[in-house]
Design goal:
This is Acyl-CoA dehydrogenase C-terminal domain-containing protein. One of its GO terms (molecular function) is acyl-CoA dehydrogenase activity. The protein is of the alpha+beta class and about 400 residues long. Helix content is about 50%, strand content about 15%. Helix 8 packs antiparallel against helix 9 and helix 10 runs antiparallel to helix 11. The chain is globular, with a radius of gyration of 21 Å. The two termini are about 30 Å apart. The mean pLDDT is about 95.
Amino acid sequence: MTNTRADLRELRAELVGRVHKFGPVLADGVAEGERERRLPDAVVRAIDDSRLSRLWTASAYGGLETDVRTLSEVTKALSHYCPSTSWVVNNINGSNLLAAKFPRETRDEVFGDNPGAKLASVFAAAGTAVRTEGGYLLSGTWPYATGILHDDWAILVAREVNLDGDAVGGLSVLVPVADLTIEDTWHTVGMRATGSHTVVIREAFVPEHRVISGEVQRGRENATDVTLPPLFRTAAIAAMAVVCASVVIGVGQAARAFVIDRAPGRGIAPTRFKSQPESPTFVSALGRTALTIDAAELHANRAADVIDEAAATATALTESELRRIRGDVGQAANLVTVALDGLMWAHGAAAFAESNPLQQYWRDANTAARHAMLNPHVGHELYGGAFFGLDPVVPSL
């Protein structure tokens, strides 16, 4: 059954409350996640038990079938406890939404006996597929497969090549994680627990029903199909960009809350101020950074609401709207990184102690904000170019 808008608002609040109930489990796993470069088993169980990996899964398969704003709010809440968990949950849901473009037979195979199926996806066309009887032979190496250590399936992008090795098109291919080799390559300073390792496959057979063209995967033909639930009319790539930005915003909000909480008990060396709020300079700096984070959230909320409104009314987003959305998310991520620098200054040198959560917020947000979808320079160029009718600088919006 499709959720009404009132249903979604109520469910959204309940889901955010659910995050805060099991949030301590996520927070308790942060140190282990940093050390092992993967989510702890207890965290994965919490994700499964809370059904937060089903927000963008069809209700017909036991999913919650929510919307962009709901996942955005959930990821912001998750980031307060563990930014890596937030990133993995957003990626699973985004990948599950992409799976909706595959044929019914494929969706039944993935979700029919496993409503909590978790998917990964890698957009880089880092593999090749050669047509053979009944399907394709897939080979390739795909980096940055977020959450792959905990997922059941992966959507990989490949170039279809003929027997002479010439590229003849792009494909989106769905494969079981059991068919992949996972290479331990995720050695980063931030978002360490996402386990975004490299996956490799060599001449594996993929049946035809698990392969669709890149045009179908990226296409927005479903936008006006009134026979579909609103979620599956959603502009998927734009939606995924919004929730990626929401993870970063949640980190900024968590850092801000930490600085505010600790401020009364911290002085400002070498001044006479024994408590940070006594300092007009500190209070002004905090107000400025707080407003910067608020501005980031307003950008993301605008983008999410535009996408959801279009999906709810079966209206196709214009290219100008899609370009502005990419500008919104890039601007939002960039604003948070600027604000985090301000919060580090405001809190003081203690922010860089390994025991201080601020340094991890700083590392995680700055790492996530560099995701290609959140590049502010690309977003600015896309949005600015829309005013002059210039061709978009990225192929998929």
